[in-house]
Specification:
CATH class of chain A: Alpha Beta
Number of domains of chain A: 1
Number of strands of chain A: 7
CATH topology of chain A: Rossmann fold
Strand order of the largest sheet of chain A: 1-2-3-7-6
Distance between the termini of chain B: 30 Å
Radius of gyration of chain B: 20 Å
Order of helices and strands of chain B: EHEHEHEHHEHEHEEEEHEEHEHEHH
CATH superfamily of chain A: Thiamin diphosphate (ThDP)-binding fold, Pyr/PP domains
CATH architecture of chain A: 3-Layer(aba) Sandwich
Helix content of chain A: 40-55%
Shape of chain B: globular
Largest sheet of chain B: 7 strands, mixed
CATH topology of the largest domain in chain B: Rossmann fold
CATH class of the largest domain in chain B: Alpha Beta
CATH superfamily of the largest domain in chain B: Thiamin diphosphate (ThDP)-binding fold, Pyr/PP domains
Helix content of chain B: 25-40%
Order of helices and strands of chain A: HHHEHHHEHEEEHHEHEHHH
Number of helices of chain A: 13
Number of helices of chain B: 12
Number of domains of chain B: 2
Shape of chain A: globular
Oligomer: heterodimer
CATH architecture of the largest domain in chain B: 3-Layer(aba) Sandwich
Largest sheet of chain A: 5 strands, parallel
Strand order of the largest sheet of chain B: 3-2-4-5-7-6-12
Structural class of chain A: alpha/beta
Strand content of chain B: 15-25%
Number of strands of chain B: 14
Chain lengths: ~350, ~350
């Protein structure tokens, strides 16, 4: 039963099993590759930072697992779009940001919110439709926003966040506040007019925005390559005269390095960039997705590239963190999720007089 | 404006009980088979089979040239339908949610609706823009709106809804054969509703309302899912001796004013119901038509029942409280009767 101690233990056990897999992969990695002590790990990342990266990625994964269990137990409704498998993108990008920088998010936005510092209990309460949620229950999974942590909102309209991010960048430029906006969008937004209009406008004005395309290979059942002409969304940067880079989106360090560069460029006033992060939507489009448009082989291949497992392998090989560290964090996050579920379930629904409230400013 | 007596679909040999989504698919299949110029385009209509399974299996049946999965590009979907129609094709373009039609509004409103007129009647645009609308699914503010009034306000567009598998099939076939731009709106909460549909071909003309329940005391004028809520309310009120007539206008434009007026002249009381926000909704047009044509017949002001003035909230109790349900219709019927006493 979700929300119970048993569920928390189950989640922790699953994470722990994955840790073991990572550990064994780690040994193989050490045997085969010429790893130096911190191979592939940016030198400025302290062990504490590495722990934090792991904690954020595990938070995202466990949040999705806990939400799914609650949904399947009919404790919440609507649509859930899971971020599982894409954790390295949100985590790597947000690590390159300052706390007061902005992001715009998508319908698959839980990971962005968590990586930007969102609170699990307020997120879970929102999914439960409770008054204590980020949006007081009015938004739900697809519309979580946390303006205080710079999260300008998830979005139910594909591509709609792109011009909004451009506008956040414009505002920062006009005010001279030195902030950077990261626009998360999916490969499905590549074909929208909003993409072209939003990025072009930002390029013409050299706005401090980083457009991060999370290419998780599918928009619902449509392959990214089916819907987007050309060599890749990153390549469109050339058309606007801005940098376009493609990165292994399941390698949190690769994402971090690329994002750091693009964020520095934006903060220096040199204008926007496009960063395409190639990753994989491990789950269906929504929790309801039962369609067989992907082969098991394809899914299995990508599961082998799981960003959390890869992170563990890498930092273990570098002897920066080990299985006991991971297990401790897994347990701590499971307890956080347990508390978030309890918080959500104990919270009341909003009262009916809230329906017409907050439509307009007073 | 002659009164059309209620005509229940004749249940005859070959009539099956099928789902709304199946009835819609039958309309598409029959029209695609009948006319090679009909083709489908939209997001996830092929491989996925349509977000609500209306087009499931059609890619395999008709091939990718006639069942076109598009990128997420609503403006392009609406606009390419126009270009294809102007040059002789008969596109049925789908928007997964009518909320997404906002992205395509220039193409629909400034282009599709006006081309024929601006070109002096020289152009023909046989387009159907199919989409879904309505709340109650927990999908929050950007996937649940009832935006039909956007379209009824634009000359050049026909706007069609439906409340049963029988109506859905007959109306969609007529919409596809129509040489005008038809916005065909399907309520997403009734795709899984079953109802009798005859096996053979039939058409339901656009612009014809239907009385779904005959009554003498109050006319409830509505469409789409709210027809069922009105019927539930009518059933409940019948037990108290209040006889409600339920009129399903089906087509919002052109509106069958005659059937509405005929009903209100009989009952002398009108309640207008829709799921869209009350203020500025299509119910205002219905109420205005009724007062223009039935002023002397009305025993009480026309009442409107619609959604509260807010986006559709996510949280279940808020969402349920936002749009009309049978108890609110019952309350409005009682109120309009009180107004006459």
């Amino acid at each position: 039963m979700p929300g119970s101690r048993r569920e928390a233990e189950r989640v922790a056990a699953r994470s722990s099993a994955a840790t073991k897999l990572a550990a064994s992969d780690g040994k193989a990695g050490r045997a085969n590759a010429r790893l130096t002590a911190r191979d592939g790990i940016p030198s400025e990342l302290t062990v504490e930072r590495l722990r934090e990266i792991y904690r954020i990625m595990v938070r995202i994964r466990q949040f999705e697992e806990a939400a799914e269990a609650a949904f399947r137990a009919a404790k919440m409704r609507g649509a859930l779009h899971f971020y599982s498998g894409e954790e390295a993108t949100a985590t790597g990008v947000c690590m390159a940001l300052q706390p007061n920088d902005y992001i715009t998010s998508t319908h698959r936005g839980h990971g962005h919110c968590i990586a930007k510092g969102g609170k699990l209990n307020k997120m879970m309460a929102e999914l439960y439709g409770r008054v204590t949620g980020y949006c007081g229950g009015k938004g739900g999974s697809m519309h979580i926003a946390d303006v205080e942590t710079g999260n300008l909102g998830a979005n139910g309209i594909v591509g709609a966040g792109i011009p909004i991010a451009t506008g956040a960048g414009l505002g920062s430029k006009l005010r001279g506040d030195g902030r950077v906006t990261v626009c998360f969008f999916g490969d499905g937004a590549g074909p929208t007019g909003a993409f072209h209009e939003g990025v072009n406008f930002a390029a013409t004005m050299a706005l401090p925005v980083v457009y991060v395309c999370e290419n998780n290979q599918y928009g619902m059942a449509t392959r990214a390559t089916f819907a987007n002409a050309g060599p890749g969304i990153w390549a469109r940067g050339a058309a606007y005269g801005i940098p376009g880079e493609v990165v292994d989106g399941n390698d949190v360090f690769a994402v971090y390095r690329a994002a750091k560069k693009a964020v520095a460029r934006a903060r220096a006033g040199d204008g926007p960039s496009i960063l395409e992060s190639k990753t994989y939507r491990q789950r269906g489009h929504t929790i309801h997705d039962q369609k067989g448009y992907r082969s098991k082989k394809e899914i299995d291949e990508w599961l082998k590239l799981d960003p959390i497992v890869r992170f563990r392998t890498q930092v273990e090989a570098a002897r920066a963190l080990g299985a006991p560290d991971f297990e401790t964090i897994d347990r701590e996050v499971a307890a956080e999720l347990q508390a978030a579920l309890e918080f959500a379930e104990a919270s009341p629904f909003p009262s009916l007089d809230a329906i017409e409230r907050d439509v307009y400013a007073e | 404006m002659a009164f059309t007596p209620p005509q229940a679909p004749a249940v005859k040999a070959g009539t099956r009980e099928i789902f709304m989504s199946q009835a819609l698919q039958e309309a598409l299949v029959e029209e695609m088979t009948r006319d090679g110029s009909v083709f489908l385009m939209g997001e996830e209509i092929g491989v996925w089979g349509g977000a609500y399974n209306v087009t499931a299996g059609l890619l395999e049946r008709f091939g990718p040239a006639r069942v076109i999965d598009t990128p997420i590009s609503e403006a392009a979907i609406a606009g390419t339908a126009i270009g294809a129609a102007l040059t002789g094709s008969r596109p049925v373009a789908e928007f997964m949610y009518s909320d997404f039609m906002g992205i395509a509004m220039d193409q629909i409103v400034n282009q599709a609706a006006k081309n024929r007129y601006m070109f002096g009647g020289k152009a023909k645009l046989p387009i159907v823009y199919r989409s879904t609308f309505g709340a109650g699914t927990g999908n929050a503010a950007q996937h649940t709106q009832s935006l039909e009034a956007w379209f009824t306000h634009v000359p050049g567009l026909k706007v069609v809804t439906n409340s049963s598998p029988y109506d859905a099939k007959g109306l969609l076939k007529s919409a596809i054969r129509d040489d005008n731009v038809v916005v065909f709106l399907e309520h997403k909460a009734i795709y899984s509703m079953r109802g009798p549909v005859p096996a053979g071909e039939y058409l339901i003309p656009l612009g014809v309302a239907e009385v779904k329940r005959v009554g003498t005391d109050v006319s409830v004028i509505t469409y789409a899912r709210q027809v069922h809520y009105a019927l539930e309310a009518a059933e409940q009120l019948a037990a108290e001796g209040i006889m409600v007539e339920v009129v399903d206008v089906r087509t919002l434009y052109p509106l069958d004013v005659g059937t509405v007026v005929q009903s209100v002249k009989k009952t002398n009381h009108a309640v207008v119901v829709h799921e869209a926000v009350t203020f500025g909704g299509f119910g205002g047009e219905l109420a205005a038509q009724i007062q223009e044509h039935c002023f002397d017949d009305l025993d009480a002001p026309v009442l409107r029942v619609g959604a509260l003035h807010s986006p559709v909230p996510f949280s279940e109790p808020l969402e349920r409280g936002q749009f009309p349900d049978p108890p609110r219709i019952v309350a409005a019927v009682r109120q309009v009767l009180q107004g006459s006493r």
